[in-house]
Amino acid sequence: MIMTAQLSISAFGAAGSFTPDPADITNAACLAFWFRAWLGFVLGACLGSFANATAMRLGNGAANLTMASTCSGCHRRLSAVDLIPVYGWVRYGGLCKCRSIRLHWRYIFAELALGALVAIYAVLLPDMTAIGFAIAAIFMMISAMTDLETLTLHPPLLVMFALIGGSLCLAGDAGLISWHLSSLDALIGLAVGAATPFLINAIYRLVRGRNGFGTGDVWLLGAIGVWAGWGLCLAIFLSAALIGAIIGGLMMIANSGNGQTKLPFGSLLAGVFMLSPFLLNGLVH
Fold first, then answer.
1. Coil, helix or strand at residue 234
2. Rounded distance, CA 285 to CA 155, Å?
3. pLDDT (tens digit per residue) in 241-251
4. Distances, alpha carbon 215 to alpha carbons 87, 161, 170, 196, 212, in Å
5. Are 55 and 61 in contact (CB under 8 A)?
6. How many Å separate Cα 269 from the centre of its chain?
7. Nearest CA to 197 among 266, 275, 105, 104?
8. Alpha-carbon distance 275 to 282, whole Å?
9. Which tens digit of pLDDT belongs to each residue from 67-81?
10. Whole-number mean pLDDT of the chain?
């Protein structure tokens, strides 16, 4: 399984990634390394801020996802400076603009997490792969947050995610970009990804009389299959299931849950997917 998963992303190690000695600041390649890391962090932090805002609006049932951001306390519209990722949090000491409410940790977490992730993508992955997975990270962060907070995944969002992945595969087939999957690989990944939780849930429901996976998990893993291919998709599923089993076991030991406690499996899938290029291809040493 791991060998198959590695083959699914073997192109990740192609030309375009580089790892010069970061301590040699006089080296031109090193300067390029740090510039790519800095640029990746800035862009990633912006994407994290956008993902957090979108997840919050989806969780609150907002009809307009494109409405202007406002202060959580006084509800006045925020300026462009207030919306600068990380800076806005530091400027107001983790408080809203009018300083009447302490902001949730998710604000700074989303910005720092995606900032760091995209920075690593930028210096370790080929250019097009880094761009593609940075886009994917937006959808995965939104899905992880909504599932963590409300145990809800949004099929329209996941369909859009799958369509973008499929478009990249088609562009790769046409020779327009360098991409690690063909359209056929993506279709097989979609089928295997969607079928895996669906069939397991059908068997579980037959035996236990209740669902083990939600419908959103089927949509999510199917969409992940379009991006990852069937081998890596199954590896992501097994990894997330193992992590979920460990968390569930620890909750039972701590008497904070039981065998019927629902876990945000979609959040685990999204998290493992975002880390999969490094965990399964040995790009991080």
1. helix
2. 36
3. 999 999 988 99
4. 38, 16, 27, 12, 10
5. no
6. 9
7. 266
8. 11
9. 778 888 888 888 888
10. 85
